[in-house]
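Write out this protein's structure.
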Amino acid sequence: MLSLVVVGLLVVSGLAVLLPMVSDDSVTVAFTDKSNYETLIIAKEKGWLDEAGIRHLHVMGGVGAMEALTTGSADMAATGDGPAVNVLSKNENVKIVARFIGGEGMHRFIAHSDIKSPQDLEGKKVGLQVGSSTHGAFMAWLDDNGVDRDKVTIAHQPPNQLHHSMRNGDIDAMAGSEPWAINTERMAGKTSGMDVHEIGNSSGQGSTFPITLFATQRIIDRNPEAVQTMVDILDRSNQFILDSWDEAMELIYPYTGVENATEQDACSRLQFYEVGFDETDVQSLLIAAERRNIELTEERLLAGTDLRFLPGGNG
């Protein structure tokens, strides 16, 4: 299949990044290789994306995926609740088509051992990816525990650098989903002799932190079959993970950056695997918007969904 490749300029975190623009005869999905996107990793590893003619655009986190989607570098993208509500509040040309992973405790906060309680973070520096789902979960956790967030310094960092910063003493704690948290425990803790521990996580915040697939209105209108195929692949991949758990862990861990399948198992058990979209997802996204001071009503959120592609026609 011939494709016309055009180069687009995208500014990400102040850096110029060159990305291929989507051509008329190609279909591209943007996602990152980390535990929250295991469903798509399996689809790629098993060759199901290639079989369907869907290209993978690798990005760093859900923020990068949504930037690729909104700038025309991808037709579909997978992201967490933070980037999702940010885009839903501003862009009517992208739609949620399915949630495929979630987990209320997927965001974990790792600190040096001398930090015993949430209040001990006051006057300290915490590394995280600003604008991410983890960012919102961490700030909510501070509020829930009575911590003055103005006394906590947030250091924006690429998530794959957080364990280095902890080990080097540049930050006192980190917040991240997997594999960033477990890598910090291993690489900044066990291998360096530094004593670190989980001081908290995102459980109990009233959110399941849904990981959702978005599609542009353009691809929905021009090639709805591709969107349906992508959702069907998500469902197939999730079923493979649930039915062949040990095999799936072996396939996934080389992509996510954990050390072995045992570590991947620990990360993956924080999540559930189900393709759908329901009231729980709606409320989780509204919570995410409220905590970020993003103006997003339930009416606007529902207008930003196109659920006809869900399995069983339950859209």
